[in-house]
Structure formats: structure tokens, C-alpha cells
Amino acid sequence: MTGPAVPAAGAGNGRYAPSPSSDLHLGNLRTAVVAWLAARTSGRGFVLRIEDLDERSRPAIAQRQLADLSRLGIVPDAAPMVQSERLAVYQEVLSDLRERGLVYPCFCSRREILEAPRAPHAPPGAYPGTCRHLTAAERAAKAAVRPPAWRLAAGVTAWPVTDRLHGSFDGVVDDFVLARADGTPAYNLAVVVDDAAQAVTQVVRGDDLLSSTARQAYLGHLLGYTTPEYLHVPLVLNRAGQRLSKRDGALAGPSLWENYGGAEGLLGAIGQSLGLASVREVVTLPILAARFDPDRLPAQPWTV
Ligand code: GLU
Question: What is the pLDDT of residue 17?
Fold first, then answer.
């Protein structure tokens, strides 16, 4: 493949959806490379989305992320979608779910959720449903004290997921949050609505999000969307075996690029970590694309 493929009619898009709260680190860039390769080699288009609903998001960081991606050759087919510009869309979807009786207010604090009694085999981290059956009077009394978050009244406790790397499994679905108490739409709502809006048929992202996938696929099902193909990429770990974070200064921001000798060195190292390049080989995205096979991606984390 010698350049961005024209998306085949109906194939939809692959995507990369960074949160602009810190510069892209080595693991983020590696996932973005896999997302681009998976999209291009399957005849899909490629789009970006800036997931800036979190208050830690900064426009300047989003700009640096786009610039870093572009230095690696990762350029989207259309202007990136920006979540903070789409609040009205999320509200509309929320109203639709509310009209269908699928949303209820939740007044629980984090601590109350942790301490609430739960069914013996309830999966860790799942909301125990405390506020689901409050009476109207109980809701009114609690609403006078604190504003509620809004949760999905899920009709299932598990939903099937098929992942290109992790196989098929039934993942946990609980009454997850759709909108926070301050009115901000939750990540799980925005990501599902936006993937559909961007005609995303292939979701490639870090495997820290594998556990959210059943919730998202179920919500997409409720909204009548087609389930995308999933590929969750193993994380990059530091020498201590921890996932990369801002503290790994040498592996994020300007020092990452310096340490790897710029875009060429970085792409080479990423290609090598994916089994697509030999040591110190100079590669380009199209060279990696010609060797890429999603079924032969390393299933283990990359420790640097
Ligand atoms: N914005 C999320 C992140 O940067 C990724 C969300 C997704 O790919 O679904 O971790």
C-alpha cells in the first residue's frame, strides 16, 4: 500500500480518540499506529476524535496531540470531531433514553457504592443498583440535598463482545453512568454516540478499555447502532511493570521524540514492538501497512 486508501463504499471508518489531558506517550502513539494500520489495511477510512469532556482537557494539548500524530504520518480523512462541541447531541440521546424509561437518577457517593450490599457474585466495580427502585418521594427528598448523576436502567447484566485479539466473551453490563451530576455526559455515552456519528465500524484502543466494551456495545444496541469490530491493543508498561503515565517523562512529550531520534526512530521502534520491523530499520506507515496482519499482533504488553 503506498498511501491512504480510499475507503471502500460502506466499509466505514477506523478511528483514534485521544483525551487531551496530557501529551501522547509511547503507548498512545503505538495504539494510534495500530488504529491507522487496521483501518487502512481493511479498506476503511480513518478519523480522529478529541475526547475533551473531562475538565483536565486543554486545547493546547489537543493541538500537540494532532501535531504528534501528523509527524508520524497519521492524518485523518476529515476534520477531527470535538466532543465539547456536541453537548446538544448527547442531551438529545439522553432525552430519548429517558422517554423510553431507561434512565434514572442516582444519588450515591463513591463511598456509598463501595459499601453497598451486593449480590454474592456481583462483579467488582459494577453498580449494585441502589437508586434504581427509589420511590418518587425518596427521589425528591434526595434531590433536595444533592443533584443526581443519571444511570442507564440496563436490561441485562452481561453482553457478548468479540475482540480481534482477546476473542469472544460475555462482559459485565451494569447500570452505568450516562451523565454526571454536573450535567457532563459520561464517556460511555459520548463514545458510543460519536462512533456511530463518525461511521466507525472498527474500534482500536488500549486494552484498559476492554472492560467497558460490553457496556458500550449494549448501549449501542439500545440506540439501534451496528456494533463495530473491536481490537484492544495491549498496553505499554514501564520497567516497573506499570502502565505509562505522565510520570514516565522520558516516554512522553518532547523528550520521547528526542530519545527515539524523531519520527523515523519512533516509528521504527513501534514497528519493531509490533513485530513489523527489524532492529533500527527505517520504516514508513505504508511499509508497516504492507506487513500488517491484525491477527498476528503481539498479545502481551510491551515493556520499555
Ligand atoms: N479517550 C480515551 C482515552 O484516551 C479513549 C476512548 C476510546 O478509544 O474509546 O483513553
Answer: 98
Residue 70 neighbours by CB under 8 Å, 6+ apart: none
Residue 10 or residue 215, greater confidence: 215
Return the half-sphere exposure (C-beta side, CA atoms, 13 A cut-off) of residue 34.
31
Number of the ligand 1 atom closest to the C-alpha atom of 208: 10
Amino acid at 220: G
Q: Is the CB of 62 under 6 A from ligand 1?
A: no
15 lines ligand 1 (CB under 6 A): no
Distance 28 CA to ligand 1 centre (A): 10
Please confirm, yes or no, whether 246 is among the known catalytic residues.
Answer: yes
Catalytic residue among 100, 246, 280, 296: 246
Domains along the chain?
A: 13-84+197-212+224-303 (3.40.50.620), 88-187 (3.90.800.10)
With cut-offs at 50, 70 and 90, classify the pLDDT of residue 260: very high
User: Using an 8 Å Cβ cutoff, are 151 and 113 in contact?
Assistant: no
Note the pLDDT of residue 1: 36
Report the atom number in ligand 1 closest to the C-alpha of 28: 4
| Smallest CA separation from ligand 1 atom 7, residue | 17
- For the residues of 195-256, what is the DSSP string, one character each? HHHTTEEEEEEEGGGGGGHHHHHHHHHHTTPPPPEEEEEPPEE-TTSPBP-TT-GGGBHHHH
The answer, yes or no, to whether any atom of ligand 1 lies below 6 A from the CB of 205, is yes
What is the Cα–Cα distance from 109 to 113, expressed in whole angstroms? 6
